[in-house]
Design brief:
Shape: elongated
Radius of gyration: 21 Å
Structural class: mainly beta
Number of helices: 1
Order of helices and strands: EEEEH
Distance between the termini: 39 Å
Strand order of the largest sheet: 1-2
Length: 65
């Protein structure tokens, strides 16, 4: 993710700095049907660090009957 530059204007001159943040994350969602419609039952946001748990989280799931 990139952030917008921080710009300081001083008369006819300006100076800018950019801050960089590198983070990779993934979300998984599970919904349930209620009388009011679909609702979120569980949401997981994980910072991906290359662990087996994270790879399993993003692996395709078997279709349910």
């Amino acid at each position: 993710m990139l952030t917008v530059p921080h710009v300081v204007v001083d008369g006819d001159e300006a100076e800018a700095a950019r801050f960089w943040v590198a983070r990779v994350s993934a979300n998984t969602w599970r919904w349930v049907r209620t009388a009011e419609g679909r609702r979120i039952a569980k949401r997981v946001n994980a910072n991906l660090e290359g662990t087996a748990e994270h790879r399993e989280m993003l692996a395709p799931q078997q279709a349910r009957p």
